[in-house]
Predict the structure of Sugar ABC transporter permease.
Amino acid sequence: MQAAPRRTRHAGSLAPLAFIAPAALFFAVFVLWPIADSIWVSLHDWDGVHPMRWVGIGNYVELFTDDVFWTALVNNIWWLLAYMLAPIGGLAIALFLNQNVLGMRLYKSLFFFPFVLSQVVVGLVFSWFFNGDFGLLNLGLRAIGLHGVSLLGDANWSTPATIVAGLWPQTAYCMILYLTGLTAVNGEVVEAARMDGARGWGMFWNIILPQLRPATFIAVVVSVVGALRSFDLVSIMTRGGPYDSSAVLAYYMYEQTFLSFRYGYGAAIAVVLFAIMDVYIAFFLVTMLRRERR
């Protein structure tokens, strides 16, 4: 008499696993396995054709004596710090656009426009904009009597100019996340705060911003990932130049792997980049969870 209910409960306990299994399989094959394989390749010297030769941590030892690697790492840190402006800018624009005024749909479309452009198109547009000969920036400078500048050809300015190009669509993406988050803000809580005298900055900091924590978390995570995998814009705008001054880890990994045929060395760069990304996101996640528990 009790066998059927037990089988029903047993089948019910297996049902979630049955639903999770396909996604878990895809995750293992297309995420976990490539990560493990990259770590394994990073421990070898391999040109992609001949048999791999075990070198242990030799590639990592070489990394820490490689000047270009350190330049790329410092540039990635600058990208990471600058990309933290994207959630701030996106939130400011979202608050501006979250109003019922005439023409707001047009304004939203204009601010949304950078997000729908591919990174290649963004890179080409800003390459033309910063061009030292016919770029719009230099045409404007010369129009007011100033000398033109070649930002992408200057070792000191090539990285900041590329970061500016990346911030344009990244800020638009964060804006979309915050616009979505603002639709979920509890209006009753806002009205109650207004009745208690909350206004302006106090209303925003104590009532609105705490309800936007999920959107903030996603915005920060995607900004971190976008900063650390900044390959497209560097490849299109500077190709790591001049003299490797604007190289980032993702581009240097590509350069060593597919142009110099050093697959093991390129995999070591990829592992370091993956570790940096994991540490930063884990730190932010732990910080967010601690704040939620308070």
The domain at 65-293 is CATH 1.10.3720.10 (MetI-like fold). Residues 3-42 form the longest helix (40 residues). The two ends are 49 Å apart (CA to CA). The mean pLDDT is 87.
